[in-house]
Design brief:
It is a single chain. The chain is an alpha+beta fold. The protein has 11 helices and 17 strands. The protein folds into 4 domains: about 110 residues, no CATH class; about 110 residues; about 80 residues; about 90 residues, OB fold (Dihydrolipoamide Acetyltransferase, E2P) (Beta Barrel). Helix content is about 35%, strand content about 25%. Strand 2 and strand 3 form a beta hairpin. It binds zinc ion.
Length: about 450
C-alpha cells in the first residue's frame, strides 16, 4: 500500500467505512462522472441514489451530498482511492455550479497539491478531533461522578429520584459528552426508579455501584490491561471502537440469526441488535446504527442464515462482531428450517456467565441459547426448566400464555438475554417452528 493510500485509510472513521470506500473504488459501476480542476476533484457516485462528492485538492476539505454520519463517508473515500490509483480518469473539466458554489464557501487557501504533506495535515486534524472527543468524554465522566456522589449523599428517598426528568437530563448530558453507553445506563436506572417494583432501591443501588466502578476504572485506564481498556471504552460509548486490526482473525461461516431487536435513542439514533450463531463459535452480536433521517441498512430476520466473514472486537468476553465486508445488496440469505442447538444445562450456562462476568464486570444482556426446556408458570412467575429440573426465571414481552400455548407441554429451545436475574426471551423454537417475541 502506498503512503498516500495509507493516509487515506488513516482518515477514515472506521474499518467498515474504509472497506466500503475501497470496494467502491474497485468497480466502475458507481461512477457516473469523475473530473478535476486545479482546485478540486469531484465525482457523481451512484449508490441507492446519486451522491455528489467534492474534495479540495489540498484534501483538507470535502463534502458529499449523502446523509452518512461518518466523515469522510464511503463516497469521499472511494473517490480518494480512485484518484490516488487513476488520476488520469479525472478529466480536466469546467467546474460545475455545485462544485464552484462549494469552493466559494471555503476559506482562502494557499495553493497546495494532492500529496502526502496535504494528507498528513488532514490526518493531524483528525487526531486533534479525536483528542477533543476524549477530553469531552473525560469532562462528562467527571461531571457524572460528582452527580452520582451528590445523589448518594442525598439518598434514594428524594422525590425527584423517581421521576423520568431527573435521569433523562443526566442521560442527555452524557449524549452531549459522546458517552452514549453511559446515557443508556442512566436511562435503564431511571426505568428501575420510576417503575418502583419490589426491591427497586436495591436494584438501583447495584446499578449505581456498577456505574461508579466504571468511572473509577476509567480514571485508571492507562494502567489496565489492553482488553479491559477495550471493554471500558465500549461501555462508555459503543462507537469508541477499539482495535479491529489487520491481524484480527477473520472467521468465515454460515451464521444463523437467533434474535433481533431495534431501539431508538432520544436524538433519533436507531440501534439494531442482531445475535448470530454458529455451533463452533460463541454467540456474536452485530450492532448496526443509523439516524432516523437515513435509509435503514439491510436488517435480518430471526432464523435467516447467511454466509459471511466476521471479526470479533477485542474484549475480555468477546461478543460484538464487525462484518469484514459490507453485505451485498442481494445476498444469499435463506431461511433455516431446523431449530438451533443450545446448551442443555442451566447450571453450565450460569457457570459460563460467571466466567464472562468475572472477565468483564459491566457485562449486561448476556446471550443465552438453551435447548430442551419446558416453560412453566407458577404463582405469577414464569420459568423455564431444564432436563435436570433446574429452573430459571424468564420475562416474556406479551402474554405468557402465548409461550405456554406455543410449547404445548413439549420441550422447546429458548434464546434470550440474561441480566443476572431474569432471562428476557427474544425467540423460541418447538421442533422446527420458530416464534419471535416482539420487543
Ligand atoms: Zn457520501
Amino acid at each position: 500500500m502506498s503512503n498516500i493510500a495509507k493516509q487515506i485509510v488513516a482518515m477514515s472513521p472506521n474499518t467498515g467505512n474504509t472497506n466500503k470506500g475501497q470496494q467502491m473504488a474497485s468497480t466502475d459501476k458507481h461512477w457516473q462522472l469523475l473530473a478535476q480542476s486545479s482546485q478540486a476533484i469531484w465525482a457523481e457516485c451512484k449508490g441507492t441514489s446519486v451522491y455528489y462528492v467534492r474534495i479540495s485538492k489540498d484534501v483538507v476539505r470535502f463534502k458529499c451530498s449523502c446523509k452518512s454520519r461518518y466523515k469522510p463517508c464511503k463516497h469521499v473515500l472511494g473517490t480518494l482511492f480512485l484518484y490516488q490509483k487513476h488520476p488520469q480518469r479525472f478529466a480536466f473539466n469546467n467546474t460545475p455550479v455545485w462544485v464552484r458554489n462549494w469552493i466559494n464557501t471555503l476559506p482562502k487557501q494557499t495553493h497546495q497539491t494532492f500529496n502526502e504533506k496535504a494528507l498528513a495535515s488532514q490526518l493531524l486534524a483528525k487526531q486533534k478531533k479525536a483528542q477533543e472527543r476524549v477530553q469531552l468524554r473525560t469532562q462528562g465522566i467527571w461531571q457524572l461522578e460528582q452527580w452520582l456522589l451528590h445523589l448518594i449523599e442525598g439518598g434514594l428517598a428524594q422525590t425527584h429520584v423517581q421521576t423520568h426528568e431527573f435521569w433523562e437530563a443526566q442521560a442527555s448530558r452524557m449524549v452531549d459528552s459522546k458517552a452514549r453507553g453511559l446515557a443508556q445506563r442512566l436511562q435503564q436506572m431511571g426505568g428501575i426508579a420510576v417503575a418502583a417494583q419490589q426491591n427497586w432501591e436495591q436494584k438501583l443501588l447495584e446499578a449505581i455501584a456498577s456505574l461508579y466502578l466504571l468511572i473509577c476504572s476509567y480514571k485508571k485506564l492507562p494502567q489496565l490491561p489492553p482488553l479491559l481498556q477495550a471493554d471500558i471504552k465500549a461501555c462508555i460509548d459503543f462507537s469508541w471502537r477499539v482495535g479491529i486490526t489487520a491481524n484480527t482473525p477473520v472467521v468465515k461461516n454460515t451464521w444463523r440469526v437467533l434474535g433481533h431487536y431495534v431501539s431508538k435513542a432520544s436524538d433519533g439514533v436507531i440501534s439494531a441488535y442482531t445475535y448470530l450463531q454458529h455451533p463452533k463459535h460463541p454467540i456474536a452480536l452485530l450492532l448496526q446504527f443509523w439516524h432516523e433521517n437515513q435509509a435503514a441498512p439491510l436488517l435480518f430476520r430471526v432464523n435467516q442464515c447467511f454466509e459471511h466473514a466476521l471479526q470479533w472486537y477485542p474484549s475480555n468476553s468477546p461478543l460484538r462482531v464487525a462484518l469484514v465486508k459490507p453485505l451485498p445488496v442481494k445476498n444469499n440469505i435463506t431461511l433455516n428450517n431446523t431449530s438451533p442447538t443450545g446448551l442443555l444445562s442451566i447450571n453450565n450456562m450460569l457457570n459460563n456467565y460467571a466466567q464472562a462476568l468475572a472477565a468483564n464486570p459491566w457485562l449486561t444482556n448476556y446471550p443465552v441459547l438453551l435447548s430442551n426446556c419446558l416453560p412453566m408458570y407458577q404463582s405469577g412467575i414464569a420459568y423455564i426448566q431444564d432436563e435436570n429440573l433446574q429452573t430459571l426465571p424468564v420475562t416474556f414481552k406479551g402474554d405468557i400464555w402465548e409461550l405456554l400455548a406455543f410449547s404445548c407441554l413439549q420441550k422447546i429451545t429458548v434464546f434470550g438475554l440474561w441480566n443476572g436475574k431474569q432471562l428476557n426471551i427474544l425467540s423460541v423454537w418447538r421442533d422446527t417452528t420458530c416464534m419471535v417475541v416482539t420487543q
